[in-house]
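Hi R.,

Here are the chain sequences for the assembly we discussed:
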Amino acid sequence: MNTASFKEDYKKDILALLAQNLGLRGSVLPLPSRYFTSWAKGLGLHRGGEVVLYTGHMYQLVPVIRLMEEQAKELAPEKRARLARLARWINPVVNVSAFSRFMVSAAARSRYERCLQNIVLLLRLTGLEPGYLYGVEKYAGALAFDLGLDGPFGRHAARVARRLKDKGVKEIITVDPHTTEVFKNVYPKVVPGFDIRVRSYLEVLAEANIEVRLPWEEKFVFHDSCVYARYLGLIDEPRRLLEAAGVKVLEPDQSRELTHCCGGPVESLFPERAEEVARARMEQLTSLGRRIITACPICWLNLERVRDPRVEVFDISEILAAAFLGKI
Amino acid sequence: MIQVDERLLERIAKDKDFNAQACFNCGTCSALCPMGLGLLPRELFRYVLLGARDRLRELSDVIFSCLLCRLCEANCPRGVRITHNIRTLRSYLVKDEYRIL
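And here is the predicted structure of the full complex:
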């Protein structure tokens, strides 16, 4: 097999796998529903309701993607391509992605689960008591949409929208930019009559003027997510919140609407290139400081994997929780 | 030699939103691209307008390696909806060339 053809086949096989997973199992990376819902244990979140927190599975998937990346990295591209071909044929019968959950330790998951827990506690400070759909909640389909898998995405979006309608949901509060964008700007175009209100938890918090308990009084570098900044115009909200939390926000040359991508979007097809972009961005960020804040789980994952051990990357929810909830 | 498919643009731009004609080839997009995709999007859009179907097939790696980050779009002097156009090309390849329906 020559290089060009195995690369071409690899791309087609990965696209086909993602489409299969979305069609057959409702997610690009399907895992048992308790894997996605275990973070909510003990929080007393009521089931469903008109206003629900929608995780979109993104934070939960970060440790799985990370593990899969590490494994894939050890394989030569030709071998990776052969495995993708094999997986494409087996996957309709056996859920090949499900195996990965056995390898993600509870410790690796706990930091990401804590982000979601903190987001709930932060929302409660505003007086809001969102519900949660537990196993009814599905991945929103952003990756499939971005990769041009219009058929599988459209069918999936229709199913997700029907579920939300059946459960009487009127508003969803999202926790990551990709889920926010796809619900806010794509669903209304592909699902006739989709009229559910969509807000990011950062917007909800920024509007509420919550009181700070333990101000940071420290400097952090802030990395804008492309989707928040350029698709959703969510630029001032995270800054207002961080400043209220006592953070001195350091801005890299490329920030706000001119932010530099983390490389995440091409991770599934071109992992090596994704890493190069992450490194370039990391260099810009670390020229200002060693403590970086991200607001997107995908940016977090990508910057984290090229991080020098002396550099720390935080999710914005961790920083806000410490200041507003007084939790370290 | 380029083989011309006269109906390529029509097939790709079914939703009529493919505004590649607006591009005047200034190259701002290529200069800013974090992936260093020198080809994107100007030549790519030109191929569509020309009906060069084979070129799109050959350039599928470029089409799929766009980050959709919109840095180019934020600076495009002609307001070309670059990422939307790239997504439209992906949809075309997925459906018409890879037969993933």
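The interface with chain A takes residues 34-35, 60-61, 64-71, 73-74, 87-95, 98, 100-101 of chain B (CB under 8 Å). The radius of gyration of chain B is 13 Å.

Let me know if anything looks off.

Best,
T.
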